[in-house]
Amino acid sequence: MVFKVDVESFVLEKERLRISDRNNICVEICDVIDCHLSEEPAGFLSGLFWSSPNLVVRYICKGKNYKWTAETVQVTGSKEECEALQDKINENLGQVNQRPKKLGVFINPIGGSQNSLDVYNKVVYPLFKAANIKCDVNVSERPKHMIDLINCFDTASVDGLVIVGGDGSLLEVLNCLLTQAQKEAGLDYDQPTCKLKHLEIPIGIIPTGTGNGAAKFLYGTLDYVTAALHIIRGETNENNIQAVYSGGKLMSFSLIAVACGFFTDMMYEMDRQRWLKKARYAVVPFYMGLFKKKRLLNVKLSIIPGKLSSETDDIEGTMEEMEVGQVSSLISFSGDLFNNATDSTMDFVKMSQSTRKTGLFTLLAFKESGRLEFLSCFMGFLTMTRSLFQKDCISTHTVRGYKVKLPGCNENLDQDPSIARMNNLLDVDGEMIDIYEGEFEVRTHMKLAKFYTSH
Ligand SMILES: Nc1ncnc2c1ncn2[C@@H]1O[C@H](COP(=O)(O)OP(=O)(O)OP(=O)(O)O)[C@@H](O)[C@H]1O
């Protein structure tokens, strides 16, 4: 939206600007995107219709449901008045030193609807350019190429990194940077109790993938403009990251969810059906839920129970064995689904804010259920309706860490080899990783990585 005001009704204070003839709109200086004088038209004819120079101020407007927009106000007045106002706004803006000046941008052109390049060129880059942010752009050309790109990239040459893609791309970058940081610090990072080194460089995500769970946690919305505006604003917060261990090794980090069993089978199938694009997220679960027989896992589960009053450090705590019986799948989220449990649907932003403080997260065990019950659970799961957790077929645990052993794996080698293979696959943020002998452990590491988010 663009609106005009007279320079007289524009009041600049140190940390905010006020527009008095517009219901007293008040804009914090840190929410100003840019401020520039509009150019005088070059031609004679257009010059005749040129009334007076304008100062154009763009700023972030924070709307409902976490959605942010870029608004424009044109200030009319004399050239001197507009120039003086421009100088003052830019001087105040220059003191907001959290803003990035240069970003390393990593684009996955085939993520989600395969529109990442378009989104970057048409939506994100114009905003970064307006905010005077320089960009070093890298585009991945094949699977896992993002890893090579980030490995060769000098992160010290930029203030932050931006991933234009999905959770898989973000995970590739995070895994690479976090492992590098642990190696440089000489840490024994394969030990689940090792206190890991925090990542210094802030990361932002433009959610052009399919699932985009990370953006929901960071920005509360999948809107590209909102994500870009969070990055421009430059405020950062440190989020907890989970680490997944198997066979005595750190296998992967995780920002969103870790799952085994039916969820892994489903993600595996979704990956095979990429040609369906986003539709695979609806088609595959319905097909598998209705027509495929679910594997049942005789899980041995140990957890570090989450106690809010506990003063324990994130990576400490004792594992306690749990009786869960046969389950069709296990899934853990990187947040505590039950903290602030007042809304009917889950608020990912609140979840990530609370888990930053407590380090607690939720583990769900899905027991065997009828096909219709499964589909109703799955719908609740997609919409993240809280009533989902009152269902008998789901048992919930608030934990700091957990360990799983799928006993069927080794003893059942004579069974269908594809099933034995699936028992050794784990779904981490939508990507498949191999685990050893059906065993894995998940631990939360508090405030391990910094993200561009004002929430
Ligand atoms: N140019 C490319 N060609 C083929 N594959 C690529 C290319 N660039 C990246 N990839 C691979 O694409 C995979 C998925 O990427 P990404 O996570 O960005 O999108 P998505 O899977 O659609 O989204 P989400 O993970 O949020 O569901 C990654 O495994 C990555 O290695």
Automatic annotation (TrEMBL):
Gene3D superfamilies: 2.60.200.40, Probable inorganic polyphosphate/atp-NAD kinase, domain 1. This is DAGKc domain-containing protein. GO terms for cellular component: membrane. One of its GO terms (molecular function) is ceramide kinase activity. The lineage of its organism: Eukaryota, Metazoa, Spiralia, Lophotrochozoa, Mollusca. Residues 98-250 form the DAGKc domain. GO terms for biological process: ceramide metabolic process. It comes from the Eukaryota. InterPro entries: ATP-NAD_kinase_N (IPR017438), Diacylglycerol_kinase_cat_dom (IPR001206), Lipid_Phosphate_FormReg (IPR050187), NAD/diacylglycerol_kinase_sf (IPR016064).
